[in-house]
Amino acid sequence: MLRKYVWLVRAFGARWVLFRIRHALRMRLGLPRLLAPQKPWDAIPSDFDKKDGEGTPVFAQTVGNHLKSLLADTLARAPATDGRGAEPFSASPPGMESREILAGSFRLFGWHRLDTGGLPDWHRNALTGERAPASVHWSALGDFAFGDIKNIWELSRWPWAFPLAAAWLRTGDNAFAERFWELAENWIENNPPNSGPNWKCGQEASFRLFAAVTARFALDGAPATTPGRLAAWRRLVHATGERITANLDYALSQSNNHGISECVGLLTAGRLAGGVRGAKWTRLALARLRGQLDALVYPDGGFSQHSAVYHRVLLHDLAWGMIFAAGIPGNGGGAEGASPPVWLQSALARATSFLDAITSPETGMAHLHGANDGANILPIPAAPFADFRPAIHLARRVLPGGGAPGRENSRRHFPDSGILLLRRGPFSLLLRCPTRFRHRATRDMGHISLLWDGIPLLLNPGSYSYNATGRFADGFSSAFTHNTATCENADQMEKLGRFLYLPWPTGRFRQSGENTYEFANLAYVARFGATHTRRIHFPDENPAAGSPDAAKTIVIEDRFESKIPRRWRLHWLLHDDGSGQKPRAPDLPSQKADPNAFSLDIALPSPSTPGRLRFSCHIQGDFAPPPEITTVRAAPDSVRGWYSPHYQEARPALSLAIALPPTRDTTIRTLLTIPGEVPQA
């Protein structure tokens, strides 16, 4: 136990540890009930300050008109492409989701469907049926006492507001506006301030506010938007600002998206409410937001959470913040405060360039890494969950000059974020190579993901659920499920909490040639005196081939070194072509001349490039007996052979594991080739 506290102090500092102890004591004493008391809705103000709140000329010029323009441009008429000739964002006919919502069918995490037949039960776990009490103060409810609480929160983020608002803007049909207000009124009636699970998280309240504000401006002028409903909406804004303020210090202490989201939520409430209270919220939000961005958005554009999905949340937060931070005198913006603060613009521009760099312009799929909680908080315009281009488009829409592109060349190293990105033809490869201590909740040092024509070939396992049980419990964040190596059957970090793993390991990175890069994973040096070095090489094209069908090849060499023999396991998670219910038998070593060489072929998922991926391995070292090589697809009793592209969804994949007997020095050379002549391993 003492060792774990030492790790915490080294990672976060003594001040942070003392704050968390104090916060736990405050929760035990019930102080949040005093700071954020339960109230009936009629105890919340139903109006804004008429001098500088929502609806005044100043607000209309600096925020209201900007937001309305943004909605009209991106909600009603989604751009045909991302600006570089790629495919359209939306994969479903316009209005499909809004008509589903009219019929009582809702989408969860961008994938699942929930048919309610009418109005949802806002306190029910949508996937398990468990129900949280609605009348208890939020501080008395556990995060995972009713299954995964995200299954309760998802509909209470009001994701249904966006398609309904878009449908009204597109058609003028009052049925869509009426459905929005029907759902909003029912939610408000069943969720009085600070009562029940849907007030437990200030970030969730912020996301709900973004959706509510979007719909309120989009539905301005609809017959369903009545004065009484607008009064209820204003009460929701006030209650959200109060809820965020009451526990903002805790959100900031998490050093992740929570603090940023809640600062932007508080900024939104402050600008809308106006007056003395609104000005106080606005000043507090901007001051704390600046500190969060300085600490959490790296110089290279990466984000402290080391997650593609959470990076999209960051872009959505900051794009929204740009709108509501405009027009505040003395905030560090342009002339007379007309522009958002320069520090906010800079953080959004860097973060946008980073996400653009790791996103395929052909499909919108990003190199998924880190946690995936299913978040897509500003789906403007509507698109599949895995399409990251709308977030990039939205960010560029609010940035002066549109922001800089993120893919200037074929190779980029993001040293602060610990990412190497390489492109060659249709190949796009990402290597997780952290060389500094950073906040990480996924044990993926040395992990490689690979896209071909924007489609994943080497997969990131995803998250599945933050409260999974059975075979998927905690399995998807482990190094054992990633495309990397483990030593002596030990993970790269130890689990100290649900989202906290320590100690954070580091590595060494260098470019050792024109097309060669090396990363040394030092996660096992202190425990086992062992090092895993991963070398990536793009061989020159075969000039004799002389055709566009010449082989595209990546060479990956994994070297395992230690002073005394150690056992290593190298794992790959590959796209599964779905042929049959069991793994297709690859050409694994058997009674061959060289039992340490093998290959397998996998069908390419890209419809534009027929052929197969050849995965060839050769193992050379001082081991005995021979390595154990296994493949598993969709194991019925373990996490092997699965991946999770959406939250709460698991799909089959092909898991290939190479378990080495104790060895001091072994190299595994892997060739990935598509298509054409296959070089010898």
Offer a few descriptive terms:
681 residues; alpha+beta; seven-stranded antiparallel sheet; 22 strands; 32% helix; globular; disordered C terminus
Q: Using DSSP, what is the number of strands?
A: 22
The profile of the biggest β sheet is:
7 strands, antiparallel
Radius of gyration: 26 Å
- Per the principal axes of the C-alpha atoms, what is the gross shape? globular
Spans of at least 5 consecutive residues whose pLDDT stays below 50 are 79-87, 543-550, 579-587, 677-681
Structural class: alpha+beta
Helix percent band: 25-40%
Give the strand order, joined by hyphens, for the main sheet: 11-12-13-14-22-17-16
Instruction: Give the helix tally.
Output: 17
Q: Mean pLDDT, nearest integer? A: 86
Structural account:
This protein is α+β, with helices and mostly antiparallel strands and 681 residues long. It contains 17 helices and 22 strands. The chain is globular and about 80 Å long. The strands form six sheets. It has a seven-stranded antiparallel β-sheet with strand order 11-12-13-14-22-17-16. A five-stranded antiparallel β-sheet has the order 3-4-5-6-7, with no helix packed on it.
